[in-house]
Specification:
The structure holds two protein chains of two kinds. By secondary structure, chain A is of the alpha/beta class. Chain A has 18 helices and 24 strands. By secondary structure, chain B is mainly alpha-helical. Classes of the chains: A alpha/beta, B mainly alpha. At the A-B interface, helix 11, helix 12, strand 20 and helix 14 of A face helix 11 and helix 12 of B.
Chain lengths: 526, 398
């Protein structure tokens, strides 16, 4: 209660000041141009942020958002780019990350910079542990940490190791860490990509709290819903150029999307009428055990059918067992499984991914960098990885065949890459995802599992992936799509299964499904 | 001398860094080759000057090539193991044990040459399979398994030889380590190599042209052919100026060609690089990680046996400390040659340049009568410097 009143007072004082500070820029980046060999990543970009606002930065993947933030964060030092950075009207020439941090900038990247084996308190104060002459004052450390966490309304024990926290809570620890450094400008790069809905809510609450305290926040996100919920202003980048800055009141989602992609998108989900054919796969009584050897089940008695030429959506919250379900059907899950899988009416023994591929299954897995791609290798190598046999004569790779196959998919899926020999690491997220798709399409699958097929990729690339899915369905492929984005589930699937705690709790035709119904079953209602 | 060497490498870095900004990835790879080769040439120039030319005499170069052969054979297997994301610390001990068994079979049990060789190679292969089994199927880290092998097989060697050296009596086995190819045969092989190289380069160019890929200007291709031809002819002439091409070097060249082909052009090689690059993605793409991991260790064991045969032949005897520390030289060669300890990246020809760097240091410093403690210190330093140069070239090219 006391804390709340304090905040109220703060809010009022801020409200008073707001009028004066309205046009006071805490940060201005003027005419920033940054070139990489062969690419102009940023072209004369200007970006201004007012004191105490939440400023959203939007753009497709590869638009230059991350590059801009890396310049701000001192990752690309002064001199490697053209243009000027002003903080409180003073020119800044950051030579390294440290100097940027010292002037109050704190950037939380998508890949969190936490030490997994250390606890929350140690992580928050990493690099500036309190104490004297090299001896850590542990009591102070944990006291300060819990004070900080409490102020932010975070319910986290400072003694817990980072690896034991969920990804959402890890993100919050990063925020706490940034604040402990006295950050004036907090940059969040795609903070919500891996968060559940309730975690996003907590994060939003904390950001509002920070705003009241006068912390300026730059929020990078693909999820426009969140942007419109929280941001005061929005700046849109496209192809390395700044397209414009708008008050959130003066603009709507569709307009932002069209500014981002440079054209009007009439519809976000290209729904087509599918005519489902015969049943191609049936799963009966599938149970999957925890790989840690305990008797607990991660998948409980799951049965369902998939028809030729349909899209089956699987909805559910994080940890509902959706990924475990598709990976175990595919033979890639380490835990033991029981139950039966029939493919075209015949019982199939799938013990490892190669069995699944032989049976006409494909799996575009959830985390493309971890499970889908070999980042240090080329587009061609990655494309042909799951069907090496097809490009080999007697175990020797026929580079002509490899070239022809890879070119075909690069063209068909419109993968933007300088060459077939380019490392996939250098491609944008959407194009990386297309490479993973290409890899599986080359195996000519009859049943394709897509686990979060559009996570972390931009609107334009999403649309292209939906079109590819439709094209596959037309060719008679059965698609199983796991997704955490309800609009996507509703917009693309023909049938929807809802999972909760390892079991299927509901099944709908898309015409009768609504977000509310799905959430009801996904949260365990019956 | 040492500082001169360092300076040379540093200059190289900055020069390549400047060039690198405008280069495509293809040229980038070449720049790295040039870096490693210029480090090697730098070392050679220094030794030539300091020894008053003795280092570059054909007799010494033949000796150098022979010395490098054993480490190089081990390095071929080591590249595959490291690329697959593992390590093999046992190769030195396996080399020693195979040499010991060969000597016992041949001179004590009076077996014929062929059965002796077959059994020796089989032994190395089986030991490799043993390591592979534990690493691939029982999930024990390769460092631990091969550290165990390192201790065990050295122990077995000490047991069967009772710590005395056993000399060979077969001139053929001795010849594998010591003989030279007749000069005429050397010239014919050299000519053949020139023709094959030229054809390969021209065909690679034609294939790139056919698919509308970026083709280097004609003069560059001609220069490339000339360069390799001169290299091959020069090598044959220098070797023939002394006694001819040493047999171990011929064996090494054959193995290099075969294994480089396996690594770059076959399904097997592709899968090994994939497993090292991202084991989970490889597994989910239907690659049988366990089987390939096992095979990589089998190959490493096989190559250790061959290295054992060459070394025992060269020394004309099996000793209980043969191949001690050879695993470290092999790993160093790989690393100098740009193999990533993280797995997924590495090349056999580069590793051989690395092996040549290590052997040149040994050879040159021995010519100078440098005390052995200095030799170790300098080799250690060069290892660190070479990797540092390699890493900074990569970074500045980014």
């Amino acid at each position: 209660m006391i804390i709340r009143t304090v905040f109220k007072v703060c809010t009022q004082t801020w409200a008073d000041k707001e009028v004066k500070t309205l046009d006071e820029y805490i940060l201005e980046m003027k005419n920033i141009t940054k070139e990489f060999p062969g690419v102009k990543a940023l072209d004369n970009v200007t970006f201004s942020v007012r004191k105490g606002e939440i400023h959203a930065l939007c753009g497709e993947n590869g638009a230059g958002k991350s590059t801009l933030m890396k310049i701000l964060g001192g990752v690309y030092p002064y001199g490697t780019y053209k243009g000027d950075i002003y903080i409180n009207n003073q020119v800044m020439k950051f030579q390294n990350v440290r100097q940027s941090e010292d002037s109050g900038i704190s950037i939380i990247y998508q890949e969190l910079a936490l030490v997994k084996e250390l606890d929350v308190g140690e992580n928050v104060f990493l690099g500036k542990l309190p104490g004297q002459s090299g001896i850590v004052d542990w009591d102070k450390l944990y006291y300060e940490t819990s004070k900080l966490l409490k102020e932010l309304g975070m319910d986290i024990n400072p003694h817990v190791k980072i690896k034991d926290l969920g990804i959402g809570q890890q993100q919050l620890v990063e925020v706490a860490k940034a604040l402990s450094k006295d950050a004036k400008i907090l940059v969040l790069d795609e903070p919500s990509a891996a968060l559940t809905e309730s975690e996003v809510k907590t994060l939003m609450g904390i950001l509002r709290e920070l705003k009241k305290r006068g912390v300026t926040c730059i929020y990078i996100s693909h999820k426009l819903g969140e942007v419109f919920e929280i941001a005061d202003r929005i700046t849109i980048l496209r192809d390395g150029k700044s397209i414009g800055t708008y008050d959130i009141k003066d603009i709507n989602e569709d307009r932002v999307i069209s500014l981002m992609v440079g054209r009007e998108l009439t519809e976000r989900f290209p729904r087509e009428k599918h005519i489902p054919g015969e049943v191609v796969m049936e799963v009966k009584g599938l149970n999957v055990y925890d790989p840690d050897g305990t008797d607990s089940l991660v998948i409980k008695d799951v049965s369902f059918k998939i028809r030729k030429g349909e899209i089956l959506g699987i909805a559910g919250l994080m940890g509902a067992g959706r990924t475990e379900l598709v990976t175990s059907i595919f033979g890639g899950y380490p835990g033991k499984k029981t139950g039966e899988i029939f493919i075209n009416g015949k019982k199939a023994e799938i013990n490892r991914p190669s069995d699944a591929i032989k049976n006409g299954l494909g799996l575009v897995s959830e985390d493309r960098k971890r499970f889908g791609l070999i980042l240090e290798q080329s587009v061609a190598t990655n494309t042909t990885l799951a069907s090496i046999e097809k490009i080999c004569d007697w175990g020797v790779i026929n580079s002509n065949k490899e070239y022809l196959n890879a070119t075909q998919f690069v063209k068909e899926l419109r993968i933007k890459t300088p060459s077939l020999g380019t490392k996939v690491n250098n491609l944008s997220g959407g194009n990386q995802q297309k490479v993973v798709l290409a890899k599986w399409l080359m195996t000519k699958p009859k049943i394709l599992f897509l686990d979060e097929p559009t996570r972390g990729i931009d609107v334009g690339a999403k649309f292209e992936i939906y079109n590819i899915m439709n094209e596959l369905v037309r060719q008679g492929v059965a698609i199983v799509m796991v997704s955490s984005e309800l609009p996507e589930i509703l917009g693309m699937s023909d049938r929807i299964l809802v999972m909760c705690e390892g079991a299927i709790r509901g099944e709908f035709d898309y015409r009768e499904a609504t977000q509310e119904k799905i959430m009801y079953y996904a949260t365990g209602g019956r | 001398m040492n500082t001169m060497n360092t300076k040379l490498s540093v200059n190289n870095t900055t020069a390549t860094a400047k060039k690198g900004i405008f280069s495509s990835s293809r040229i980038k790879a070449n720049i790295r080759t040039y870096t490693m080769i210029s480090v090697l040439i730098g070392i050679w120039i220094i030794f030539t000057v300091v020894t008053g030319g003795t280092f570059l005499s054909s007799r010494n170069l033949a000796l150098l090539a022979r010395q490098a052969a054993v480490t190089s054979v081990l390095a071929i297997g080591m590249v595959l193991v490291i690329v697959a994301g593992h390590i093999d610390l046992s190769v030195g001990s396996v080399l020693g044990l195979c040499g010991g068994v060969m000597a016992i079979l041949q001179s004590k049990m009076e077996w014929g040459v062929i059965p002796t060789l077959v059994v020796t190679i089989l032994l190395g292969t089986v030991i490799g399979a043993w390591h592979g089994f534990w690493v691939a199927y029982k999930k024990v880290p390769a460092f631990i398994v091969t550290l165990g092998g390192y201790l065990m097989f050295r122990g077995v060697l000490l047991g069967i030889t009772k710590s005395v050296s056993i000399s060979l009596s077969s001139p053929i086995l001795k010849g594998i380590g010591q003989d030279y190819l007749p000069k005429g045969v050397g010239i014919v092989l050299g000519a053949l190599a020139v023709v094959v190289t030229a054809i390969t380069i021209v065909r690679a160019r034609a294939s790139r042209e056919k698919y509308n890929l970026e083709v280097p200007p004609v003069y560059q291709t001609v220069l490339k052919i000339c360069f390799f031809s001169i290299l091959i002819i020069g090598f044959v002439l220098v070797m023939n100026h002394y006694e001819g091409i040493p047999i171990p070097v011929i064996i090494l060249l054959c193995l290099t060609l075969i294994f480089n082909f396996i690594a770059t052009k076959t399904k097997f090689g592709r899968c090994v690089y994939a497993i090292g690059g991202n084991p989970e993605a490889a597994m989910l793409s239907g690659i049988n990680n366990k089987r390939y991991t096992m095979m990589v260790f089998i190959l490493s064991g096989f190559l250790s046996a061959i290295a054992g045969i060459i070394l025992t032949g060269r020394l004309n005897a099996a000793t209980s400390n043969a191949g001690a520390m050879a695993e470290m030289d092999a790993i160093a060669a790989c690393v100098i040659g740009g193999t990533s300890m993280m797995g997924g990246v590495g090349s056999i020809p580069f590793a051989l340049i690395g092996a040549l760097v290590m052997a040149s240091l040994d050879n040159g410093m021995s010519l100078l009568n440098t005390e052995s403690f200095w030799q170790q210190i300098i080799k250690g330093l060069i290892l660190i410097l070479a990797v540092w140069v390699d890493m900074s070239t990569k970074k500045s090219n980014r």
